[in-house]
Amino acid sequence: MSTTNNNLNEPQNLSSVAEVEDAKLAQIHEKPKSQGRIVFDRFVSHKPAMISTIVLIVITVFAFSSIGWGPFPGWWGQNYYHAGAVVDGGKPTLSLVPTWLGGEGFRIGEHPFGQDSVGKDYFALVMNGTQKSIIIGVVVGLVATVLGTVIGAVSGYFRGWVDEILMRITDLFIVIPLLVLAAVLGKMAGASTGSIITLALVLGLVTWTGLARLVRGEILSLREREYVAAAQAMGSKTSRVIFKHLIPNTMGVIIVNATFAIAGAILLESSLSYLGFGVKAPESSLGLLISQYQNAFTTRPWLFWWPGMIIVAIALSVNFLGDGLRDAFDPRQVGKKRRRRAGMFALPTRKEKP
Amino acid sequence: MWKFIAKRLGSALAVLFAASLLLYVLVINSGDPLKDLRESNADNREYLMAQRVEYMNLDAPWYGRYWDWLTGASKCLIGQCDLGRNINGVEVSGLLANAASSTLRLVVLATVIAAVLGIAIGVLTAIRQYSGLDYIVTFLTFLFFSLPVFWAAVLLKEYLAISYNDWLADPQISVGTSIAIGIVVGLVLQMFLGGSLKRRGITFFASAVFVPLVLQYSLWLNFYRYPQMGPAIIIVLTALLALSATAMSVGLKEKRVLYPALITVVLVLAMYYATFYMLLEPNGWILFFGLVLAVVIPAAIGRFMGGRLRKAAMSVSIITGVAGAALTIIDHLFRAWPRFLDVKGRPIATIGSSTANLEGGFWDHFLDNGTQLLMPTILLAVISLASYSRYTRSSMLEVQRQDYIRTARSKGLSERTVIFRHAFRNAMIPIATIAAFDFAGLIGGAVITERVFGWKGMGEMFATGLDHVDPAPVMAFFLVTGTAAILFNLLADIVYALLDPRIRV
Fold first, then answer.
1. Cβ of B467 under 8 Å from any chain A Cβ?
2. Which end of chain A, N or C, is more open, meaning fewer C-beta atoms within 10 Å of its C-beta?
3. ipTM reported for the complex surpasses 0.95
4. Which residues 305-344 on chain B approach chain A with CB closer than 8 angstroms?
5. Per the database entry, which stretches of residues form a coiled coil (chain B) (predicted)?
């Protein structure tokens, strides 16, 4: 074998067909890659997912750096709580259409997203809302993922009465429509403290059920594998078997669902804020901005457009990111290959006819 | 099987009971039901508060109130529902009936449209995986997943409803616009119909020339205010549908399927003339009876003429018959449209489920309900269409990878047979269960759509109920959605077991 490997570049020196085949096999397996590396490579080559990652990073960096976060000051000169004089009806000063296309040329201006009815800078307001929406999305995603993973893993590993009880609890949360439960809990959270972290924790408490079911299914089949039996025979603690051996092998499902949970949480928060059961007035979020200004659509459309566009951009990129991750984790994924095409009504096209 | 169903129903009832208890406790603790009265300055404040305490039985402890609700709700099993009274002392059972009927009207239509279109698009994108069409549809489905519903609703109202109404006041399409529309239609059509480059080119040029001409001709006819169809067009459209349904199911060579379908087309024409005067001022029963006829007669024809292929013949004939009946109705709607525009100047409404005090006959009310339904239905359908097409696509791709599909291809079956007979049927098994879940979920999920479009449905009942910390309407909403969720879950399991012989219960 070693000689064949050395002669890789000159296959014509090989004497028999078998050796040529061997050489080809050796060539394919030239660079062994770790599982994580394969997944990463697949993800990087997934164009929509990479574009979404960049969009997400840009939005996040803008949201947190522009108006600052907590003790950190931002580079944007205006803040979201100071009212000022309304300039030019509060119209946005941002212009991206170059002059040769009949636009006003590229400029950012004083209030790129315009001003609201009392003259607050809308860019700062929207960035503040974006911060809050991202925080809600991430916290909900984290809480739901941790809860769902642990409950699903415990239920799938122990089976029996533990499984029965945990799955009935899951059913309980599935029978009450998500929006209803979230609205009731959101109203309670809003009545008690009104902070967005409370709201996010509460939303996390109701959105874990789907992941729990998925993880349980995966664990149910994984726990029958030999390596788990080996670990148990060697005397590993149950917690070690679950957290070291079982959960890492379901990481694909968990990560993919965590991304979708984030997108879902941002949309859920906006729905709740619209119905009046979510984020309340002194706090802010993109959903709240839309519901505050939805009646301004005909007079000041930008107050309605900007927060909506940013929600769509965030949710869309998170969804594409999740899709890319799912493809990357899918072991059956083989490069893109065009299928044979069928014509109208799946009738054979001319080429296929004998 | 029966044991399985009984066991599932038993545990489902237990879950429903526990969930109702949980929700009841959460709702009554979510705020103060007397808040607005405490802040009011009315003279009879004390009286109003006492009255509300009595209506809502606030003096009783929480378990007493829950018990009252539970005994009342369990009477539903013997047909005497007592769901308590809401914050204003109105019986919730009566409110629920109205709310449920308006929500069902909204949800059923949207689900059916979404399922049919979504499955069709899903199959098409799976057949042409990684084509331009596939990428565009994938992008659009992700976009629809990511839309905040109420945001999309406001855009839909503004750009579709209001601008259509404005346009309809004086329908004009400039020559440039109609050419642009023609080019867009051509691009979309060539993408959907596919085929070789030459065929795509022909499709594109034909529609890019044809569509602008049709648009200008229809303007000349003033079609948008005085639409007309007539029997000739009905018959051509029905015949085209019959031909394409035959081509899709078994191929045009099979005369045993083609002839019943064509006979149905002739019958549609006969029925058009036979029922013409009756349908000028019909009622709901006549329409329902007509629909039954449109299913039964073609089914009988297909059954007797189909021979070996009677199943395919029956379904193709039924599709033709129902489509013919629908076109006949549309013809009558066209006749009623100008009169309808006189009573309702801006037809596409954005608020409410029907226009109050509308004058006119059956068709006017029919059109009124339809135009009120249009916007929310489009919104709901587009959003669940995205998930249907996505699920169908992945299910089709999954099935197409399997060995029996390769076997079917390699034994020389035509692509049509492979896709519709072998792949599609098996791909539909998981979709049937998803449709069941989706329907149950939509009843609860229409809350926002109802709020945006001002429908007095169940979602609105829930939202206002929760706003006033009023448990009775919230629990009534939950009773319906929870029961629907459990029943449809069970139904999904049973359907799964029936469709897939590998599953044994």
1. yes
2. C
3. no
4. none
5. none
